[in-house]
Amino acid sequence: MVRRPADVLALDREHVWHPYGPMPAANGPLLVDSARGVRLRLAEPAFGQRELVDGMASWWSAVHGYRHPVLDAAAAEQLGRMSHMMFGGLTNRPAVELAARLVELTPGELRHVFLADSGSVSVEVALKMCLQYWVSVGQPERRRLLTWRGGYHGDTWHAMSVCDPEGGMHELWSGALPRQVFADAPPPGFDAPPDPGYVERLRALIAEHAGELAAVVVEPVVQGAGGMAFHSPGYLRVLREACDEHGVLLVFDEIATGFGRTGRLFAAEHADVVPDVLCLGKALTGGYLTLAATLCTPRVAEGISRGEVPVLAHGPTYMGNPLACAVALASVDLLLAGDWAGEVARIGAGLRAGLAPAAELPGVREVRVLGAIGVIQLDHPVNLPAATEAAVRAGVWLRPFRDLIYTMPPYVTEDADVARICAAAVAAARAG
Ligand code: PLP
């Protein structure tokens, strides 16, 4: 029996949690039947639309769009071999090939790869690597983390502790989470030169806490879910220098920015800085399957192996999942085989032109674009139902939050669809 869309949605409201959603749900989601290219096909028309251009690329991940023949073929081929096998005592070709490819692609000496099953877990693993490193080298007192306000690193416990502590999504837990050190968010503006006063304060804070810091953990260049803020790459160089001076490890969370989104393959490349630990996820599988990776340098791995417990004590059931790894490998190779930088620049130009009219609207604080990321920031919290409806009426899927209407479309989005996304975002800004 195939249920009618209305019945599926009734069951959804009754039983299924959605991200940051109440139970039972107040506003029903839209039911998607299928997707192809950059379009989501709804089971039933919503506000007169049956198909929506996906301005969200499934939360930064579907960079090649949906049902790409190369990725479909990679998945089918791997399904014909095995979709999963345990990673303890066994290994598989896709996991090994993917790890080797990531080592090749990422800057510097990032040589060792933990294949985690979600972005949050890859952050959890990164933090665990750093804490375990200091235990192993005989400085267990170094167990706090320094991060920027306004960050977002995931929803698991330790990852939440390095998210924005105020007004962010995890404020509820602030009293219970590990107590970290928070520096002010870097001053905004990708092109703005680093602010000397801010740099001095940042250096002083790192110096003050150096003896108890395991690592500095930040999202390079773009703070995503914490506020879609862009900052100068110069601050990353400051962090690298200060960490080196005090022996503190540096972790970059490139789960959102990795694989070209900011115009460089990895955002750290804007600053020519290499972290000790790097987290990747989202676009890693082109949005097909859940997979993330934590890469580290030999310093970190060798430190851990010198310890009393010489193993990294982490091993999720779906670690190194061959199906996800096979698709990830195909996705990364597909990206590199094409002109991803050209596509990102083309989309960026389209976003700049198409979102510009929003800057004139009352209630809009700022319009900003970096790489293939476009943001309209309002001067008030967005009216989510009204803004979403306006975008859907314009044939586009957007998911505004806080005071932000933003888009990071698939890299295969054609100019006409980029323009459509922009028109929808401007309509959402008007309505929301
Ligand atoms: N880190 C960053 C920078 C993110 O943007 C996200 C997700 O939005 C995460 C970590 C968490 O990843 P996941 O949702 O796959 O657990």
Task: Give a written overview of the molecule.
With 432 residues, the protein is of the alpha/beta class. The protein has two domains: 31-60 and 339-431, Aspartate Aminotransferase, domain 1 (Alpha-Beta Complex); 73-337, 3-Layer(aba) Sandwich (Aspartate Aminotransferase, domain 2), CATH 3.40.640. 36% of the residues lie in helices and 17% in strands. A seven-stranded mixed beta sheet has the order 4-12-11-10-7-5-6, with helices on both faces. It has a four-stranded mixed beta sheet with strand order 1-2-3-15. A hairpin with a 5-residue loop joins strand 8 (222-223) and strand 9 (229-230). The chain starts with a helix and ends with a helix. Pyridoxal-5'-phosphate binds at residues 118-120, 123, 152-154, 219, 224-225, 253, 255-256, 281.
Compact summary:
With 432 residues, the protein is an alpha/beta fold. It has 13 helices and 16 strands.
Supply database-style keywords:
432 residues, Aspartate Aminotransferase, domain 2, biotin biosynthesis, 16 strands, 2 domains, alpha/beta, single chain, binds pyridoxal-5'-phosphate, seven-stranded mixed sheet, Aspartate Aminotransferase, domain 1
Topology:
Blueprint lengths: L4 H11 L16 E5 L2 E8 L2 E6 L2 H4 L8 H11 L13 H13 L6 E5 L2 H18 L7 E5 L8 H5 L19 E3 L12 H14 L3 E6 L3 E2 L5 E2 L3 H13 L2 E5 L23 E4 L11 E5 L1 H8 L16 H16 L2 H16 L8 E7 L2 E6 L5 H10 L2 E2 L6 E4 L7 H17 L1
Parallel strand pairs: 3-15, 5-6, 5-7, 7-10, 10-11
Antiparallel strand pairs: 1-2, 2-3, 4-12, 8-9, 11-12, 13-14, 14-16
Give the tally of β-strands.
Answer: 16
Q: What is the average per-residue confidence, as pLDDT, rounded to a whole number?
A: 96
Taken together, the total number of domains comes to 2
Helix count equals 13
Dominant shape: globular
Roughly what fraction of the amino acids lie in strands? 15-25%
Q: Given the helix and strand composition, which structural class is it?
A: alpha/beta
